[in-house]
Design goal:
Blueprint: E1 2-3, E2 6-10, E3 17-22, E4 28-33, E5 40-46, H1 65-72, E6 75-76, E7 79-80, H2 81-87, E8 91-96, E9 101-107, H3 111-121, H4 129-147, H5 150-162, H6 184-194, E10 200-206, H7 210-220, E11 245-250, E12 255-263, H8 269-287, H9 292-299, E13 308-314, E14 317-326, H10 329-344, H11 350-366, H12 371-384, H13 390-396, H14 400-411, E15 415-422
Parallel strand pairs: 4-10, 11-15
Antiparallel strand pairs: 1-2, 2-3, 3-4, 5-9, 5-10, 6-7, 8-9, 12-14, 12-15, 13-14
Amino acid sequence: MTRARWTIEPEPLTGRPVHRATARGGTEVWVLPMPGFARSYASLTARYGSRDVTLPDGAPLPDGVAHFLEHRMFQTPEGDVFDLYAARGASANAYTTFDHTCYLFHSTTRFEANLDTLLTTLDALEPDPEGIERERGIIAQEIAMYADDASWRGYFNLLEGLYRSHPVRRDIAGTARSIAGIDAALLGRIHAAYYHPRNLVLVAAGPVDPDLVLDRADQLLTGPGRGRRNRRRRASEPPEVCRGRRRVRLPVERASVYLGLKERAPGGGRRRIERQVAAVAVLEMLCGDGGRVQRALYDEGVIDAGFYGTYEDDQDYAFATIAAEVDRAQPFVRRLTQALTAAAATPFTADEVERTRRKLLGRHLRRFNAPVQAADWLLDVALDGNPIAAGVEALARLTPRALTHRMRALLSAPRSVSIVEPRSV
């Protein structure tokens, strides 16, 4: 139903009312009231991430500039915005992904004051050259730190193995070389192109008043009235992997192995959600606790509790990752390959599918135990542009036959392996 400017729909499992509207400046506003909780949460997200490697006019951008801009947005002429949040007892943060940059806070008091700070944080860029130079040094240290992080290196080495040209193969933070030329002028052009109200999404959850949130957005997210929502062009990417194997040695105790399965781009809309939900269910039945592959390898002592499978996709890329920390990398890769082949030979049963459906529905329900987790789900819905019930409806339609077909298609996809091995001192 619609009341005033809100479109209100019930979340399909809990029945909680999801409020959706558009602020006068063009920003999408999503609010999930959760009365009875002590903590409130809000985030403001730009549809701009590390995969956006050009400006709207086609001018190329250096790797890591989206992450660099994220760091700079907290600096104002009055000082660091984090200090304002801290003075009110709020906790604030930000992060950059492949496709968006998110600024957030959560608090138990003074929600309106903290919301106003959030809504004004992205309004203008502080162009201080000395501050930008300091930030460059901080980010260079961060890049060096990630270079020694086994999970980070293993993951991005995998992406470099899977993809030849797609921007997801590039480190979100960039490199010391790629960030060297970033200056105030470039950051200003990016801010004007991607941080205008029509390219932002505001999400709030907790014991909050939707009308208050929309009113503050109307007043503070006005902008200069220019700019359009970021509509990405599909990246060109061949179906085959770039390299079948990547290996690096780091000062770690045990080896880490990442097996990647590269699928064709899913496109958008409901088809993407259905493929995504089916892939998540397949990986749960194979690699989750008690799954076909997990159970076999765990009983043999090949893996420990750190074994997992995940699925990531957007309209123009999709891949699964199966990973573990092991004593010996090569024997594990061989045994994992054998276990996956054996699993694919037998169709899924109705009991397996129903057990997994209930597990995934329970996982979704647990999101509503905390406003932070519920808001994360709401942001995913907003960025995907699908109906709020699309994921739950896709889960309800899973069948043994469809999931067996999905498993065999996924496990026959082109593969790449990334290995992080211990380096002798």
